[in-house]
Amino acid sequence: MKKIIFIILTSLTFQANAQNLFPIKLDNCKTDKFCLDCGDVKAGYDEKEFLKLQEKLNQELNLQGIKGSVKFQILVDSKGRACVLSHTDQSKNPISLQIIEALNNFRKWTPAITGGKKEEKSSINMIFSINENKIIGNIERVDMTAFKRSFDKPNSPEIFNKTYLYKNENLNTYKITVWNTKNSNLPNNMNDHIAIDKNGLIWLTIDEGLVTFDGKIFKNAEQNITDKGNFFSYYAIASDNNNVKWVYGKKNIYSFDNSKWTKYDANEIGIDGVYEIVNNIKTGEVFFCSDEGLTIYKEGKWSNINKNKVKEFPSNRVTFAKRDSKNRIWIGTFSGTVMIDENGKATNFEHTQTVLKGKCITSMDEDENGNLYFSLYEFDRKEKGKVNNNEGIAIGYADGTFKQFTTENSGMPFNHTNCVVYDKKEKVLWISTDRAGLIRYDLKDGWENYHNENSEIPTSYISTMTMDDNGNLYLATRQGLVKIEKK
Length: 487
Hints:
mainly beta, four-stranded antiparallel beta sheet
């Protein structure tokens, strides 16, 4: 009998900071944004046509004496096309490779549908089993309860900088407070977005919900004007100069003026979703970063900046934008960074030799001297699958020069950063990461790294953070809400 060489299933593990579910990740799909096995009607396939695909595989493959199974994660788009994102066959067996090719070429997928609208992209899992010289493929739906539960445990920190000695001399000068489902009435621990309003009330997105926190009690704060119901996922939040809260839920932008919710018609404002909402305190503008460019709200009026209006725009897919004290708009897109100065002149940093070339800025803060601090994302990665990429942070000094800090030239423990916040009272920079916890940089040569194995911070994954008027730093994490205050 032929030797059994087909791979047996490896254990399925979930990582909060990964889009791919299975250990063998492929780079042939555009995976900027998709949902996991979502929809009122979930993605699938035309059964008759899929049986033909299966029969063809049985005819072409030599399955004599082979037993085993392999799982595939497949990304299905709204047009019924698909590609394989990841799978479990670490041996890269030719049988798996032929299945991948067949799945990628199959054109009879059916997209997921939510609220009567096709999801742009969703992923489904399939298991192909070989037994008695035949191969059979079936969809294996994701157990969402188990999936969510898998996030509710901290990952160990991953420190890629092996040369810097972290003394963490300032750690004992801070009081760290954590609110989670065990010690408070926080509905769940998965907190991804945070804002603090003019009254000092904390607004926090949780899994399928929105809450406020007054320092003692968490209260549900979902909108109540949509047909989809009060509870669903919220993906961005900000509080503006007029104390109006802005949030993005499923396909809708909402605002709350502390008495009523307003839902905005996408046909009127030009967008139905955003990556980030940013309030600009000095100008009173609220920025909405989306696939349609940069949408600006000010004094009841909406406007838009995109490639049609500014030819230097690298892409309309804007992930972050903010004004600085010199009235310049810094914009990060998925194809590069652009800056529009106070006179309307735009600079595309892809046409420069600065450290911003090849990078998308994902957050920004400014100190009292006009120095700018950026978190970076390397959008055109040369080494597919690499974790510690050429990112880190950049400082744009007031004299116009830039410097990048990474694990190679500084005390950065890991290069992928989520957010930067400048502390005006202590004159230090706080940096959040999704693998190595929180970084404290004194802007000279002192780097400190706090995480769940050396501090009371409960996780190494910090989604984002903000600072209140008293200089207290709040962290939105996958293990609850964290407050860091000076003793």
